[in-house]
């Protein structure tokens, strides 16, 4: 039998954690033949709730789940970690300025980056879900100098999946018929969901839909503001869909993208498409053998250029702000 893969989940007692852990333990993260060992990290006040979730995980009798440990200390939680899912974060509360938000999250992601650097497995892969996800990933990455920068990623797969769903409805096709969707930039309202390179049944999606007004006034804002619409409808933020996207992100990273398709991941920029080197920005990426690569050579027209630049500028501002705060 295979050696279990160690997966650390932070914010394990939160609502995404609750939707995520059962899918990891049932084999959806890494595959139906890969045993997992869970390490859960929470703040001390939420450890008891995490213990409750662990009791339920026990009660599922998942054959692939080979153990669960719960921690309130990051150094211990990331010991030997192969896959780190950083979900816990400090939400923005009323009256909180952006600087306060970045600072509060720096207090979480700096020590977690240090802990990953100190104790994670050599092959560690990190996905940051907690917002502001791209910049939190940048903070963690900059405190893990011994871990290759490309192992730190942030989640835009939920935005990618939302874009697939919207386009499939508009075009009256299954999401499975759509390939090469792209989310560019920041996981925020400035993100740019790009259908100009997407394909529906092998044909260009933008040409197939041929409705620029829908694209500008419906598709892009609907995808970018979907998080707020879910809160409005559900009275709570996206949880099961966010967990599902996190599963997809890691599964694709580990198992590879299909031929003729790609996915969206926020990854450290090498300067591709004019995105400043070092920013953790969403790109079209292919994956193979546990490694990602930014898709090269796509033509970017003025419409797309302006939107990519706006989102990337926001990322640069966030980076400058956390630099000023001494967080990177
Ligand atoms: P919850 O507030 O339900 O859960 C967060 C959990 O994190 C809490 O249990 C809290 O105790 C824990 N936590 C706080 N600080 C911690 C620390 N230092 N170490 C370990 N655990 C800690 O939030 P939930 O709805 O689960 O959302 C989690 C994060 O995901 C939020 O930051 C949210 O904004 C973000 N999201 C990101 C998305 C994305 O696409 N990238 C989409 C969904 C979601 O909004």
From TrEMBL:
Which part of the chain is the Lactate/malate dehydrogenase C-terminal domain? 156-321
| Residues at the active site | 187 (proton acceptor)
Q: Which GO MF terms does the UniProt record name?
A: L-malate dehydrogenase (NAD+) activity
Give the E.C. number(s): 1.1.1.37
> Boundaries of each Lactate/malate dehydrogenase N-terminal domain copy?
6-146
- Superkingdom: Bacteria
Q: Does the keyword Nucleotide-binding apply?
A: no
The protein's UniProt keywords, in alphabetical order, are: NAD, Oxidoreductase, Tricarboxylic acid cycle
Pfam families (alphabetical): Ldh_1_C, Ldh_1_N
Question: What Gene3D superfamilies is this protein classified in?
Answer: Lactate dehydrogenase/glycoside hydrolase, family 4, C-terminal, NAD(P)-binding Rossmann-like Domain
Instruction: Cite the binding residues for substrate.
Output: 92, 98, 131, 162
Task: Please give the catalytic activity noted in the UniProt record.
Answer: (S)-malate + NAD(+) = oxaloacetate + NADH + H(+)
Positions contributing to NAD(+) binding: 11-17, 105, 112, 129-131
Which InterPro entries does this one have?
A: L-lactate/malate_DH, Lactate/malate_DH_C, Lactate/malate_DH_N, Lactate_DH/Glyco_Ohase_4_C, Malate_DH_AS, Malate_DH_type2, NAD(P)-bd_dom_sf
**NCBIfam families this protein is in?**
MalateDH-SF1, PRK05442.1
The family this protein is said to belong to: Belongs to the LDH/MDH superfamily. MDH type 2 family.
What is the recorded function of this protein according to its Swiss-Prot or TrEMBL entry? Answer: Catalyzes the reversible oxidation of malate to oxaloacetate.
Q: What is this protein called?
A: Malate dehydrogenase
Source species: Actinomadura nitritigenes
- Gene encoding the protein: mdh
């Amino acid at each position: 039998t295979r050696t279990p893969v160690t997966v650390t989940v932070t914010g394990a007692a939160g609502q995404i954690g609750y939707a995520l852990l059962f899918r990891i333990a049932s084999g959806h993260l890494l595959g139906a033949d890969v045993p997992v060992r869970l390490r859960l990290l929470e703040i001390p006040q939420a450890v008891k709730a995490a213990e409750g979730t662990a009791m339920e995980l026990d009660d599922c009798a998942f054959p692939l789940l080979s153990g669960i440990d719960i921690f309130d200390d990051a150094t211990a939680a990331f010991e030997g970690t192969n896959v780190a899912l950083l979900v816990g974060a400090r939400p923005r509360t009323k009256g909180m300025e952006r600087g306060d938000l970045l600072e509060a999250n720096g207090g979480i992601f700096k020590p977690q980056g240090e802990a990953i650097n100190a104790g994670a497995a050599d092959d560690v892969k990190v996905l940051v879900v907690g917002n502001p996800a791209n910049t939190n990933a940048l903070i963690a990455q900059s405190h893990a100098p011994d871990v290759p920068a490309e192992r730190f990623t942030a989640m835009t797969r939920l935005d990618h999946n939302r874009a697939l769903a919207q386009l499939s409805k508009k075009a009256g096709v299954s999401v499975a018929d759509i390939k090469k969707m792209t989310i560019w930039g920041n996981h925020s309202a400035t993100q740019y969901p790009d259908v100009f390179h997407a394909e529906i049944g092998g044909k260009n999606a933008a040409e197939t839909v041929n409705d620029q007004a829908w694209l500008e006034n419906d598709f892009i804002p609907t995808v970018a503001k979907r998080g707020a619409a879910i809160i409005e409808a559900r009275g709570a933020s996206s949880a099961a869909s966010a967990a599902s996207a996190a599963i997809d992100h890691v599964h694709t990273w580990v198992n590879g993208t299909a031929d003729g398709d790609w996915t969206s991941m926020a990854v450290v920029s090498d300067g591709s498409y004019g995105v400043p080197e070092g920013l953790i920005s969403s790109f079209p990426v292919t994956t193979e053998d546990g490694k990602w690569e930014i898709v090269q050579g796509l033509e970017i027209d003025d419409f797309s250029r302006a939107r990519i630049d706006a989102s990337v500028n926001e990322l640069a501002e966030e980076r400058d702000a956390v630099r000023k705060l001494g967080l990177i």
